[in-house]
Each structure stands twice: as C-alpha cells, then as structure tokens.
C-alpha cells in the first residue's frame, strides 16, 4: 500500500519554538548550537581515541566507541533541523522526510537501548568472572553484540514507522514538537489512532524493559559480588567503574520511558519538549562527559590525542 497516495497531507509543520519571541529564538539557537557542537566534538573525540588508541582495546571501550557513534547519529537526525527552524520562518517538513527522520530516531534509539544492556553485561563479566573475561568477551563476541543491537534497532524502526503511518492523514498537520515524534504524529491520523498507540506502547515495553531487565540482573550480581569483598577500597574502585554506565542508563531510560510509555492524556507540548530535548541532545552530550571525567584511562587518551594534534599543528607551522 502506498501511504502517500492514501494521504491528503503531503507535509507537516513542526511547531517547535515558533511561538517564542525572536530574541528567545536567537538565545535558543545559540544555546542549542553550543550544545550540539560540544556533543559532536566530545563524541567525535571518543570515537577517534577508542578506535585508534591501542591502550583502549578492551571491550568496554569498543562498546563506548559505538555508543558515541550512535549518539552522533541520534543527535544529527533532529538538532540541525531544529537549528534551521529557529532561524527561518518556514517550519514545514515533507511527508517522506518526516517518515525518514522517525525511522532513524527509532532505529538508533532502540540500538542504543540494546547496546546499553550489552555494556551492563560486559561489566558483569569483567567484575564477576575476571579470569574468563577475555575469553567470554572476545572481539568476535563484541562485534556480534554490536551488530545485534544495530539489526534489531533498524528492524524495529521499520515496524514502528509502519504503525505510525499506516493510516491516512487528512486532518491538522501541525506537530507540537521540534521533530517528528511518533505518538504526536499518530494523533493526526484520520483513522482511529488507539491501535497504533497501543502497539507502540507494547513495543516500548519490550524494547525498553527487556534490556532493562538484563541491566538490573547484571548489576544485582555485580552488587552481590562487590558486597562479598572484604576490602572497602576494593568495593569503591569496582563500583566506580559502573557508576558512569548507570548514570547514562538513568538519563536515557527516564526520558525515553516518559515519552513512549506514558498515557497520551498526561502529555502536552510543555511536557513533551523538555523530555524530547533531554534524550535528543542533553543525553548524547552528557554521555562522553560522564565517561571521560570518571575514567582515568579515557582522560589520559584524550590528553594524548589532543597533545598529538597540537604537536602536528606546531610542526605544520
């Protein structure tokens, strides 16, 4: 079935911040541009050092590099468009562009959920089975886990895109957000949106709660292992290796669960936008900062990378 042939709506209007005053939009543009630039620079630096620094060859940094790559993809699907709309008066988005944007948000977001679960499993193996860590988390296993996250993310994106755009659109085409968010788009359909909303809610339960179960089980066993150790200093050092990952999980899952697992009656533009901003720009920006500030090896690798860059510039001059 050709969705567009069933639709009288050929484009959507992203309301975003268009009702704000010009001075407020200028301030928001400067703020979001700075946050976007910081997120891209930090994630780009982590991708570079985890893929080029031989000292960061362990599985945890392999996963971290892919997490940063997912963050770069995730933030680029929404924020540049929002920055443009803060400057220009035309806030329209073609039907196909809205569909593609939503697919990328779904695909990358689901892949990140699954990857965060695999990172929790990696910490469990490293702490509870240190002698067999290299064998269990071999390079081949890590590649398969990352490929699995991408595969299920992209397949799930197809399903959710279909559920969102399965019905014709012939009503209001104004989206009360700065990007095409599925629950809002579904309510604009001419048909009964309840089935699609329930399917997306059910999918969110599986996609969000299944990885969360793995995360909870992994950290429950990690906690049991930590408490069984006699040295309090050993406990603190072991838990510090997990604190960064836990912080990222809390940020990402809190915002995603509010957006896709709450009844739509509790939502509104004033509630949706802050949480949308949290998981589309704040979380991707905070992830590399959280990991780099709490990890001595990461800070050392960043210093070495920046030092090499400065030396190369000095030689070129």
Automatic annotation (TrEMBL):
Keywords from the named record: Cell membrane, G-protein coupled receptor, Membrane, Olfaction, Receptor, Sensory transduction, Transducer, Transmembrane, Transmembrane helix
Classification via InterPro entries: GPCR_Rhodpsn, GPCR_Rhodpsn_7TM, Olfact_rcpt
Membrane topology category: Multi-pass membrane protein
One annotated GO molecular function: olfactory receptor activity
Pfam family, one: 7tm_4
Protein purpose: Putative odorant or sperm cell receptor.
Protein name as annotated: Olfactory receptor
């Amino acid at each position: 079935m050709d969705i567009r042939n069933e639709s009288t709506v050929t484009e959507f209007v992203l309301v975003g911040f268009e009702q704000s005053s010009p001075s407020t939009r200028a301030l928001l543009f400067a703020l979001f541009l700075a946050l976007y630039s910081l997120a891209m620079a930090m994630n780009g630096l982590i991708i570079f050092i985890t893929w080029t620094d031989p000292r960061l060859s362990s599985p945890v940094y392999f996963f971290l590099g892919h997490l940063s790559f997912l963050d770069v993809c995730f933030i680029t699907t929404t924020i540049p468009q929002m920055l443009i709309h803060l400057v220009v008066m035309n806030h329209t988005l073609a039907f196909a562009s809205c569909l593609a944007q939503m697919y990328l948000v779904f695909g990358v977001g689901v892949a990140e959920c699954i990857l965060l679960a695999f990172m929790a499993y990696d910490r469990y193996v490293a702490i509870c089975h240190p002698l067999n860590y290299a064998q269990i988390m071999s390079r081949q296993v890590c590649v398969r886990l990352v490929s699995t996250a991408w595969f299920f993310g992209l397949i799930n994106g197809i399903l959710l895109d279909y559920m969102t755009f399965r019905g014709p659109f012939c009503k209001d085409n104004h989206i009360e957000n700065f990007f095409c968010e599925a629950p809002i788009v579904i309510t604009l359909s001419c048909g009964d949106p309840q089935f699609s909303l329930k399917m997306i809610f059910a999918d969110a339960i599986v996609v969000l709660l299944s990885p969360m179960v793995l995360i909870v089980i992994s950290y429950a066993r990690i906690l049991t292992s930590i408490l069984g150790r006699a040295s309090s200093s050993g406990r603190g050092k072991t838990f510090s290796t997990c604190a960064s990952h836990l912080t990222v999980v809390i940020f990402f899952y809190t915002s995603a669960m509010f957006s896709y697992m709450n009844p739509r009656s509790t939502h509104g533009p004033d509630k949706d936008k802050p949480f949308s901003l949290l998981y589309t720009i704040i979380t991707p920006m905070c992830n590399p900062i959280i990991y780099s500030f709490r990890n001595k090896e990461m800070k050392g690798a960043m210093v070495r990378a920046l030092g090499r860059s400065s030396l190369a510039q000095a030689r070129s001059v």
